[in-house]
């Protein structure tokens, strides 16, 4: 009895599972750790992708303010924030007390992503309301992904939600903010980066799944063939390699040639192990010129 053929490697099974996950329209987000500003969501046969920090022809820094910060003033309160990065102040830095957790008195505002200053008893007192490492992205309208996304950033006790509304023609910087509760702020920014890129996934992605499944079945059938009895095995395990240099050589050689090094597929399937012990001529050998 011949030894059993090699088992399909784990990598192929992983690819099959990944294809199944993609075909089911799973939502993939990059809005967790590290202040990432990438977000994707599937709706029906469409995949909507956002990348707020990606450069565009008109905006080389994406949604990021080229000044290093956005500033919104309402009455005696001032709100500073930056999306997808920490703030940077080359001019007009915050001048307020209690800035130790966002750069300290000498570099106030430079080690967080959102800061608010309130006048308390005649003094401007700062509160950190958002950090780069603590953020979350969601849709403005779950039923309409094209409307834009919400970037929510957190600090220990406060938060800020910035709605980035899709406007493909212009930028409308925020001019007001809303305070809810004790320390939860919200504002709105209109920007082309709030518009998603959509990719059609016709058939709900089952084409990828079926392709991977068929590949898996074919390779399973190949490895079950016995030496010398399987034409697919004979085709793969040809002892001679044909190349374009052999074109039209020999009277018995047809006018087409195939050259393919199956060993390049070692990542997905151990072809050398599969062909070990195969002594019969392969199908491609039948067309090789005789010396």
From TrEMBL:
<keyword id="KW-0732">Signal</keyword>
<feature type="signal peptide">
    <location>
        <begin position="1"/>
        <end position="24"/>
    </location>
</feature>
<dbReference type="GO" id="GO:0000139">
    <property type="term" value="C:Golgi membrane"/>
</dbReference>
<protein>
    <submittedName>
        <fullName>Uncharacterized protein</fullName>
    </submittedName>
</protein>
């Amino acid at each position: 009895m011949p030894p059993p053929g090699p088992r399909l490697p784990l990598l192929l099974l992983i690819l099959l599972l990944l294809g199944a996950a993609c075909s089911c329209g799973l939502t993939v987000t990059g809005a967790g750790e590290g202040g990432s500003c990438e977000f994707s969501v599937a709706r029906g046969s469409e995949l909507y992708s956002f990348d707020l920090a990606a450069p565009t022809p008109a905006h080389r820094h994406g949604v990021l303010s080229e000044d290093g910060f956005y500033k919104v003033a309402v009455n005696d309160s001032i709100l500073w924030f930056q999306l997808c990065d920490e703030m940077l102040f080359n001019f007009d830095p915050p001048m307020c007390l209690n800035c130790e957790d966002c750069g300290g008195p000498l570099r106030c505002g430079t080690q967080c992503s959102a800061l608010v200053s309130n006048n308390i008893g005649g003094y401007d007192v700062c509160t950190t309301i958002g950090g780069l490492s603590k953020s979350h992205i969601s849709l403005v309208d779950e039923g309409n992904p094209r409307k834009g996304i919400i970037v929510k950033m957190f600090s220990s006790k406060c938060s800020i939600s910035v709605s980035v509304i899709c406007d493909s023609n212009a930028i409308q910087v925020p001019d007001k903010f809303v305070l809810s509760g004790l320390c939860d702020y919200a504002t709105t920014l209109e920007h082309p980066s709030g518009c998603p890129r959509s990719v059609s996934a016709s058939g709900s992605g089952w084409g990828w799944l079926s392709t991977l499944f068929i590949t898996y079945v074919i390779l399973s059938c190949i490895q079950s063939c016995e030496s010398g009895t399987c034409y697919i095995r004979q085709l793969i395990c040809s002892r001679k390699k044909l190349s374009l240099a052999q074109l039209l050589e020999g009277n018995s050689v047809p006018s087409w040639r195939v050259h393919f090094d199956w060993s390049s597929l070692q990542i997905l399937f151990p072809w050398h192990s599969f062909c070990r012990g195969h002594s019969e001529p392969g199908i491609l050998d039948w067309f090789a010129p005789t010396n």
